[in-house]
Amino acid sequence: MPPPSATAILLVSCPDQHGIVAALSAFITGHNGNIIALDQYVDTVDGVFFARMEWDMQGFALPLDHFNTAFASIADSHQMEWRLHQSATRPRMAVMVSRQGHCLYDILARTECGEWPADIACVLSNHADHASLVERHGIPFHHIPMPPNGKAEAEQQQLQLLRTAHIDFIVLARYMQILSPEFVTAFPCRILNIHHSFLPAFAGARPYHAAYDRGVKIIGATAHYVTAALDEGPIIEQDVIRVSHRQGVEDLIRLGRDLEKIVLSRAIYAHLTHRILTYKNRTVVFN
Amino acid sequence: MPPPSATAILLVSCPDQHGIVAALSAFITGHNGNIIALDQYVDTVDGVFFARMEWDMQGFALPLDHFNTAFASIADSHQMEWRLHQSATRPRMAVMVSRQGHCLYDILARTECGEWPADIACVLSNHADHASLVERHGIPFHHIPMPPNGKAEAEQQQLQLLRTAHIDFIVLARYMQILSPEFVTAFPCRILNIHHSFLPAFAGARPYHAAYDRGVKIIGATAHYVTAALDEGPIIEQDVIRVSHRQGVEDLIRLGRDLEKIVLSRAIYAHLTHRILTYKNRTVVFN
Amino acid sequence: MPPPSATAILLVSCPDQHGIVAALSAFITGHNGNIIALDQYVDTVDGVFFARMEWDMQGFALPLDHFNTAFASIADSHQMEWRLHQSATRPRMAVMVSRQGHCLYDILARTECGEWPADIACVLSNHADHASLVERHGIPFHHIPMPPNGKAEAEQQQLQLLRTAHIDFIVLARYMQILSPEFVTAFPCRILNIHHSFLPAFAGARPYHAAYDRGVKIIGATAHYVTAALDEGPIIEQDVIRVSHRQGVEDLIRLGRDLEKIVLSRAIYAHLTHRILTYKNRTVVFN
Amino acid sequence: MPPPSATAILLVSCPDQHGIVAALSAFITGHNGNIIALDQYVDTVDGVFFARMEWDMQGFALPLDHFNTAFASIADSHQMEWRLHQSATRPRMAVMVSRQGHCLYDILARTECGEWPADIACVLSNHADHASLVERHGIPFHHIPMPPNGKAEAEQQQLQLLRTAHIDFIVLARYMQILSPEFVTAFPCRILNIHHSFLPAFAGARPYHAAYDRGVKIIGATAHYVTAALDEGPIIEQDVIRVSHRQGVEDLIRLGRDLEKIVLSRAIYAHLTHRILTYKNRTVVFN
Question: What percent of the residues of chain D are helix, what percent strand, and what percent coil, each to the nearest 5?
Answer without folding.
Answer: 35, 30, 40
